[in-house]
Structure formats: C-alpha cells, structure tokens
C-alpha cells in the first residue's frame, strides 16, 4: 500500500472511531474521508480479498447477508456492506475500518446496478450474483433494459467472473457472455402453458420479441419461461428448489437439490434470496449442512419485516418500494390463517419515487378472498391510495393522513394483527413515533 | 347487469404497462357504473386482430422504450383499422409512450429518430437541454376544468395541424418547455403526458364514456348520464 493510501486508510479508521461516537451517520464517513485523501483507495485492497458482487433490484441485502453468514465458515474474515450503503464511499468505509485480514479475506458487496462498473474498475470479482430485475422507481433512468445495459458494462469488465444468476428471470439470459454461468431457480411444479398477467414487466422474448410463455410462474415475471415462437427457454438449472413443503407468512420449509432447509420468514421472494445465498455458498465450497445451520441461526437477516407489540395488538411493518414488492408481500400475508387488518401507507418523496402510478398495477384485489375486516390507507399521498382502493371496489376503507397516528388507530382494529405495508418515508415517520413512545428501540434504522 | 355495455381495447396492455394504465381502465369501469354502463376490457397486443368495429373505447398506455419499440414493430399492421377508429370519432386515450407512438416521429432508446404510426400530426423530440420532465402538472383543460396529474417523460412533444391541446399549463411543463400546451386532442382521441390521468380527472372519463355511448347507442336518451355529477373520488 502506498504511503498516501496508508494515510488515507488510517484517517478512515480514526474518523470512524471518533465520528461513530458523535454522529449517527458515521456509517459512510470514514470512506468519504479516505476517498477524499485517495480517490482510488479501493485499488489497494484488491489482493487482500476475494470479491463477490451481488446485484439486482430486490433481495440484494438479504442474499448478501445470508451468503456472508454461510461463508464465514470458510473465510475467517468476511466483509460486507451491512447497512445497505452500497455506494463507493460505503464500500470504502468497510475496507478502511476492517482489521487487516491474517490470510486472504472475502468481501461480499451489494452494489447498485449503476455502480457495478465503478467498483469492478478496482478489482475483479470471483463471482457476480444476480437476483432479479424489476422496475423499481419509475424514473426514466431505471427502465429495465437500460439498467441491464449498465450492469452488463460492469460484467464485461470481468469476463472470468462466474455469473450466478436467477434462471427464472428471462433478462439474465438475453445476451451471450464469455463468463462461466451458474443458474438457480424453481423446479418444484409441473409444467403447463401460461402467460404472465398483462401488467407484468418484461414479458417479451429477449431473442425474438414475441410474448413469452411459462411452464409455471413463481411471482411477477419469474418462472420456467419458454418462447413458443423461437424456442428460447430457461437454461438448465445448476441449483434448484426441488420442493416447497410449507410456505406461511412466518416461514417456509423447502428442499434445495433434495435437501431440506428451513427459512425463518415467509414469501417466495425470500426462498429466492436463500437460494441465491445457497448457490453462492456452494460455488465457494461450503457444504449443504453448514448452509442449513446458517439460515436458522440468523433469522433477523431475512427481509424488512418488523413486529411491534402495541397493547394487545401486533403491528407488522413491511417496507415496499415498488409494485413487485407490494405483490410479493401480499402473496406472503395472504398465507396468514388468522383474520388480520391491512394498512397501506403511500408517500412520494424522492426516496420513495415521485411517480405513484405503480399503485394501480399492484394486485390489491387479491386480498378480497381473505378474512380482512379492516382496511386503512394513509400517509401524505392518502388521496391517491384511497382512490386506488375505491376504484378497486373496496368499501369502508379507513383513512389516516398521519402515519404516527397508526399507534392509536391500531386500538380500533377488530383483529389481533395489522400488516402495515408502507413506503420508505411513511415508514420513517411511523418508526419515529414508535420510538418516541418507546415501543421500539429508536437506534435502529 | 348495467343498461349499457361498452368494449374497451387495452392496446398493447402487456407491453405499455409500466405507468399504471390499469388505473385509467379502472376509472372508466368505475365511472361507467355511475352511468349505468358496464365496461369490458381486453388486451389487444402484438399479432392480435384489431377491428375498429369491435371496440367502443381504447386505452393506449405509457411504458418503457424497449416495449414501445416492440409495439412500434406491430402497430403498422393495425394502422388502417386505428385510422378508421380515430376518424370515426370513437374515443381513445393515449398516454406517454402511447401518445408518442401515434405521432409523426419520436426518439427511441438508442437516441434515434424513428417514424411514429402517423395517425396524428404531433412529433416528439429530445428536449434541447436533455433534461427529462417529472413532477406535478396542473392544466386548464378544454373541458373547462382544471386537470391534475403527474408527468414523467423524457421527450417533449410539439402539436401539428388539426390538433388542439388538451389544456394550457398552469403548473408544471406539459408537452414542452416552449408553448404552455399539454396533451393533444384530435376528434375524440385524447393524448396526455399525465399518468393515470382519469383517476384524478373523472370529467375526462365521463366525456369518453358519453362519446362511446352516443356512438354505440345513437337512439338512446342519455340525459341521465349527462347529468351525473363527477365528484373528486377522494
Ligand atoms: Zn423467442
């Protein structure tokens, strides 16, 4: 390491220990300071670590954290960016603040699609893990194929890296690449001939531009796809879900390659997250039973669900940021056997995405067959949410513009549990109020 | 069952499907009920037959550029029937990329100028400063009402011969940064940059439904329908 980088790294260390005690926002400051001193500081870690980059729209954080949990068995020093701060400075922070690895360490980095190219500039990863690509925030910059092109720019700079990708997402098989490929996906159902619902993203065959069909669909546009026109189809799976034995809102029991795994939270998307982590761990040489233990020993890693007890009521807070996020959450909570109440909080600040038109593509209507005696819509954009539910044929929906007041409103629900499906800003407002009333620990973010 | 039935074609509804156009269809169905009218919706997409006689309403929505390019490859095959539909004064809503597709030309995902389907006279271009447009939009509409919506577009549009603006911009950008217009109207084809426009602007939904009813049921007395008051849904 050059003198300049050593100094930069040292200052990073200092600022972390000093600033972390003073400010809450210490998480990426050491990296910021170190990058100011040496903008290319990442370059100096390229030989001390093996690297894995995790990319995709949803599930990056969960898949990364799970993979780290399993890989700790093989690498004594595993770094990752735990706060979801996946910009360059967040990544710089974890290196400058980590103890120097005794032997070669491993860094598993969750990287935003647009930043892959900036990170790959400094080191060549052993593997890319690609979870899925969905429309996220509805700005023109994040169109599906534009995002994929930006990811590919980074991937093309590391042609030797193995790509471990979700085989059920057609876009990951849309271009030929020199890289070794590993595919994971679901293989637990008989094959039929289905089309995705018309409001599904990316249902066009990447080879011939006809509408793609599916043997089965797991959620969104993911599944065993095939093109009836040109024969393009899902690649052969290397790692697969062979059985889903149980899927509730609280957990799943599944078989990966014939071996049973318990996943301590519900939802098909968390099965994908676990399968992504499993595939990476297997690729890195961790055995199946070690992976199994890692899953059950760290239930807090899964998802963004948070349970809060308020008197005799339970509030389950689940953050969403896009249509597919809502639909996967709806699929999960519908497996709850008890009657429950449902709240949807809509905000449209830049952190949430300012275009709220995605709410019209969410399948809220599928809640109607379930025992849900109480609905509420709320937060700053409650009018749009109320219109959505009204036009969707829901009657008697409660309205609450202030997320903080949900703490009182939950007392009026006729069920024990209320699921609060919420955008980021409304979640912050609700959590702040919960923290003020000492219902949750305010230090968590 | 309601007294009247209308058939709606959701044109390229499985491609131009990103910006909540199902909401426009849900609004037409909701206001349809207030007008004693059932609206049946069907996706008409690539390689599907489209006959102007089969439909009373069309929604052609907004979407991503890749999907827009696939709709572009197909729409020529439907052009004659769409022309007959539009010239026949039947109501259509075109939003965002759908609006661009109907015009003379627009810019694709590779920044190339491509021909639109030339059913209408406007053209869409990259803004000179390259800045995409996003934010709240308020216009004084030619229906006499103020219309509200969210605009989110990377191209700017200039109206051509025979087209009127849907309204004059009060707040926001609208078609472009030069002439204070928003949207386009030709006969009963309504084009706009506002996403899910009918959800916040029931008057336009009512207008489209009344036109469709008058076309399909020329002898019906629609006084009751005309007198239905549109209130803000929330
Ligand atoms: Zn094909």
From TrEMBL, chain A:
Catalysed reactions, semicolon-separated: beta-D-GlcNAc-(1->4)-Mur2Ac(oyl-L-Ala-gamma-D-Glu-L-Lys-D-Ala-D-Ala)-di-trans,octa-cis-undecaprenyl diphosphate + ATP = beta-D-GlcNAc-(1->4)-Mur2Ac(oyl-L-Ala-gamma-D-O-P-Glu-L-Lys-D-Ala-D-Ala)-di-trans,octa-cis-undecaprenyl diphosphate + ADP; beta-D-GlcNAc-(1->4)-Mur2Ac(oyl-L-Ala-gamma-D-O-P-Glu-L-Lys-D-Ala-D-Ala)-di-trans,octa-cis-undecaprenyl diphosphate + NH4(+) = beta-D-GlcNAc-(1->4)-Mur2Ac(oyl-L-Ala-D-isoglutaminyl-L-Lys-D-Ala-D-Ala)-di-trans,octa-cis-undecaprenyl diphosphate + phosphate + H(+); beta-D-GlcNAc-(1->4)-Mur2Ac(oyl-L-Ala-gamma-D-Glu-L-Lys-D-Ala-D-Ala)-di-trans,octa-cis-undecaprenyl diphosphate + L-glutamine + ATP + H2O = beta-D-GlcNAc-(1->4)-Mur2Ac(oyl-L-Ala-D-isoglutaminyl-L-Lys-D-Ala-D-Ala)-di-trans,octa-cis-undecaprenyl diphosphate + L-glutamate + ADP + phosphate + H(+)
Signal peptide bounds: none
InterPro entries the UniProt entry points to: Lipid_II_synth_MurT (IPR043703), Mur-like_cat_sf (IPR036565), Mur_ligase_cen (IPR013221), MurT_C (IPR013564)
Residue stretches making up the Mur ligase central domain: 54-174
E.C. number(s) listed in UniProt: 6.3.5.13
Top-level EC class as recorded in UniProt: ligase
Listed SUPFAM superfamilies: MurD-like peptide ligases, catalytic domain
Binding locations of Zn(2+): 205, 208, 227, 230
Gene3D superfamilies named among the record's database cross-references: Mur-like, catalytic domain (3.40.1190.10)
Metabolic or biological pathway: Cell wall biogenesis; peptidoglycan biosynthesis
Pfam families on file: Mur_ligase_M, MurT_C
Active site: 355
Keyword vocabulary terms for this entry: ATP-binding, Cell shape, Cell wall biogenesis/degradation, Ligase, Metal-binding, Nucleotide-binding, Peptidoglycan synthesis, Zinc
Function: The lipid II isoglutaminyl synthase complex catalyzes the formation of alpha-D-isoglutamine in the cell wall lipid II stem peptide. The MurT subunit catalyzes the ATP-dependent amidation of D-glutamate residue of lipid II, converting it to an isoglutamine residue.
Oligomeric form and interacting partners: Forms a heterodimer with GatD.
Sequence similarity: Belongs to the MurCDEF family. MurT subfamily.
Protein name: Lipid II isoglutaminyl synthase (glutamine-hydrolyzing) subunit MurT
Origin species: Limosilactobacillus panis DSM 6035
Taxonomic lineage of the native organism: Bacteria, Bacillati, Bacillota, Bacilli, Lactobacillales
Gene this protein is translated from: murT
TrEMBL record, chain B:
Pathway: Cell wall biogenesis; peptidoglycan biosynthesis
Keyword field contains Acetylation: no
Catalytic activity annotation: beta-D-GlcNAc-(1->4)-Mur2Ac(oyl-L-Ala-gamma-D-Glu-L-Lys-D-Ala-D-Ala)-di-trans,octa-cis-undecaprenyl diphosphate + L-glutamine + ATP + H2O = beta-D-GlcNAc-(1->4)-Mur2Ac(oyl-L-Ala-D-isoglutaminyl-L-Lys-D-Ala-D-Ala)-di-trans,octa-cis-undecaprenyl diphosphate + L-glutamate + ADP + phosphate + H(+); L-glutamine + H2O = L-glutamate + NH4(+)
SUPFAM superfamilies linked: Class I glutamine amidotransferase-like
E.C. numbers: 6.3.5.13, 3.5.1.2
Transmembrane segments: none
Keywords linked to the UniProt accession: Cell shape, Cell wall biogenesis/degradation, Glutamine amidotransferase, Hydrolase, Ligase, Peptidoglycan synthesis
GO MF annotation list: carbon-nitrogen ligase activity on lipid II; glutaminase activity
Keyword Nucleotide-binding: no
Domain CobB/CobQ-like glutamine amidotransferase residue range list: 8-200
Origin superkingdom: Bacteria
Name of the protein this chain belongs to: Lipid II isoglutaminyl synthase (glutamine-hydrolyzing) subunit GatD
Organism: Limosilactobacillus panis DSM 6035
């Amino acid at each position: 390491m050059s003198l300049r980088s050593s100094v930069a790294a040292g200052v990073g260390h200092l600022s972390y220990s000093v600033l972390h005690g003073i400010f809450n926002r210490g998480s990426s400051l050491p990296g910021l300071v170190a990058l100011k001193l040496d903008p290319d500081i990442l370059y100096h870690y390229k030989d001390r670590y093996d690297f894995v980059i995790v990319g995709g729209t949803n599930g990056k954080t969960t898949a990364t954290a799970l993979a780290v949990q399993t890989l700790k068995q093989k690498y004594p020093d595993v770094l990752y960016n735990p706060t979801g701060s996946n910009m360059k400075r967040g990544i710089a922070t974890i290196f400058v603040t980590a103890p120097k690895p005794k032997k070669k360490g491993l860094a598993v980095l969750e990287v935003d699609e647009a930043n892959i190219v900036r990170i790959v500039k400094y080191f060549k990863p052993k593997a890319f893990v690609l979870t899925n690509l969905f429309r996220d925030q509805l700005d023109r910059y994040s169109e599906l194929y534009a995002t994929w092109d930006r990811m590919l720019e980074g991937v093309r700079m590391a042609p030797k890296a193995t790509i471990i990708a979700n085989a059920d997402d057609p876009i990951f098989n849309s271009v030929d690449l020199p890289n070794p490929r590993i595919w994971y996906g679901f293989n637990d159902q008989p094959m039929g001939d289905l089309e995705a619902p018309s409001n599904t993203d990316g249902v066009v065959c990447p080879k011939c531009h006809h509408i793609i069909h599916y043997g089965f669909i797991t959620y969104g546009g993911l599944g065993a796809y095939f093109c009836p026109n040109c024969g393009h189809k899902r690649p052969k799976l290397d790692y697969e879900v062979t059985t889903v034995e149980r899927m509730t809102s609280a957990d799943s029991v599944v078989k990966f390659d014939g071996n049973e795994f318990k996943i301590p939270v519900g939802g098909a998307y968390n099965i994908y997250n676990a399968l992504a982590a499993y595939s990476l761990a297997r690729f890195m040489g961790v055995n199946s039973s070690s992976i199994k233990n890692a899953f059950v020993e760290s239930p807090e890693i899964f998802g963004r669900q948070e349970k809060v007890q308020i008197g005799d009521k339970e509030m389950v807070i689940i953050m969403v940021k896009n249509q597919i996020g809502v639909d996967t959450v709806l699929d999960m909570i519908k497996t709850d056997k008890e009657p429950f109440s449902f709240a949807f909080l809509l905000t449209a600040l830049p952190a949430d995405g300012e275009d709220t038109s995605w709410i019209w593509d969410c399948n809220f209507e599928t809640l109607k067959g379930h025992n849900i005696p109480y609905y509420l819509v709320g937060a700053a954009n409650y009018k749009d949410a109320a219109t959505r539910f009204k036009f969707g044929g829901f009657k008697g929906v409660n309205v609450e513009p202030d997320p903080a007041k949900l703490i009182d409103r939950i007392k009026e629900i006729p069920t024990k549990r209320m699921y609060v499906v919420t955008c980021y800003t409304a979640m912050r407002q609700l959590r702040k109020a919960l923290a003020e009333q000492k219902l949750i620990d305010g230090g968590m973010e | 069952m309601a007294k009247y039935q209308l058939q709606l074609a959701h044109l390229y509804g499985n491609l131009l499907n990103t910006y909540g156009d199902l909401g426009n269809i849900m609004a037409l169905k909701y206001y349809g009920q207030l007008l004693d009218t059932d609206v049946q919706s069907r996706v008409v997409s690539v390689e599907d037959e489209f006959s102007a006689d089969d439909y009373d309403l069309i929604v052609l929505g907004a979407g991503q550029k890749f999907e827009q390019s696939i709709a572009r490859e197909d729409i020529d095959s439907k052009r004659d029937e769409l022309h007959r539909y539009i010239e026949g004064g039947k109501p259509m809503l075109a939003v965002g990329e759908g609006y661009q597709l109907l015009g003379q030309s627009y810019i694709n995902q590779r920044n190339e100028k491509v021909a639109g389907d030339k059913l209408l006279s406007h053209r869409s271009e990259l803004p000179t400063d390259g800045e995409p447009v996003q934010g709240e939009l308020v216009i004084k509409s030619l229906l006499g009402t103020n219309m509200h919506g969210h605009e989110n577009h990377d191209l700017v549009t200039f109206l051509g011969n025979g087209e009127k603006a849907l309204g004059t911009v009060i707040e926001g950008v609208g078609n472009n940064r030069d002439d204070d217009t928003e949207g386009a109207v030709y006969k009963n084809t309504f084009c706009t940059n506002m996403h899910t426009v009918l959800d916040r602007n029931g008057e336009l939904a009512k207008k489209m439904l009344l036109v469709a009813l008058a076309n399909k049921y020329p002898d019906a007395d629609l006084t009751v329908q005309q007198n239905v008051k549109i209130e803000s849904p929330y």
